Amino acid sequence: MSDTTYLDWPFFDESHRTFARDLALAASREVTAWEHLIAHETVDVASATLARRFGQAGWLQHVVPAPFGGARDVLDVRTLCLARETLAYHNGLADFAFAMQGLGSGPISLYGSEALKAHYLPRVARGEAIAAFALSEPNAGSDVVSMTTTARRESDGGWRLDGEKTWISNGGIADFYTVFARYPEGGERSFAAFVVEADTPGFRVAEHIDVIAPHPLARITFDGCRLPASALIGEAGKGLRIALGTLDVFRSTVGAAALGFARRALDEAVAHTRQRRAFGQALSDFQLVQARLADMALAIDASALLIYRAAWTKDTRGTRITREAAMAKLHATESAQQVIDGAVQLLGGLGVRTGHVVESLYREIRALRIYEGTSEIQKLVIAGQVLESASHEGQSPHQAREGQA
Asked: What predicted TM-score, i.e. pTM, was given to this entire model?
């Protein structure tokens, strides 16, 4: 990456700086091989192959905790964000392959039994098992509590799943799925989380879904899908808490991926405008072009501050970062869309030419404003946190003055 001065910010320690620089150097060496793989294989094969390569390189040690093959005792959000920013800068599918290993196994890392961790996480870290996170349904995306997939306890202590999930990343290539379902026995707002192996009877990949930036996506179904008691993650009835707690860790990393896309777009725009000449001078000499570049740089730094504030807070305080993560994800994804659009405009015809890196970024960024909580949902989350904080603080200054009058 051209600008690495942000690594000097006090959010990081020397291990983060070393990791970021080493990964950036390795990614710059590997990106040509990644692009060749993606060009000559299906997106499913390419994504699975990338995950295996990342495991062999040791990069996936950062998506699981020690002592289950991980690099640190707990998931380090700053490291995850640095990894996603770096990989997204170089290649969108590479970022996806890395991120899904973390998100798909995240509920096990954070809430799973020791037996589940020991069985799944070392293979995730080695890239030998592909993970998926199955929460969304055809009629339950942002409104997650409306999910209709059900989990019922069987007489032998096991479980039966029935229902459907959609927009599932790594759908069709995953070796196991973390699945969330309604738990009717626990009450109206009771849910549970499970690990479902891809070869479990009653589980089926019903449809592969194509999108504008190709990634493995699928609709999956459960029809009398029977699971052992050991497949339960955490406690029955606490599934929604597990889902939201996992997203609390990984939501900031979505912003980091957007940041990587935006940094690449700015670098491409700067390089093009310095080289391209019009009306007797370089495009970068025009004040309107300089103003556009300034807006792009400002948006990128603001996003980085929000992202690494959220990650630092999670890593050092260990508390929920619902407000901070929502702000980071919202600002970074919305700003990256504007930065990339600006790059397209500055590149002119090249910016919309199929195969150009900026055209690819334009397609890659759009989904990030939707998945793991739409921009609209992030605004509601932020407002809810602000109002809740105000209610805890008591009267406003205006109310206090009126009470004294």
From this structure: 0.94
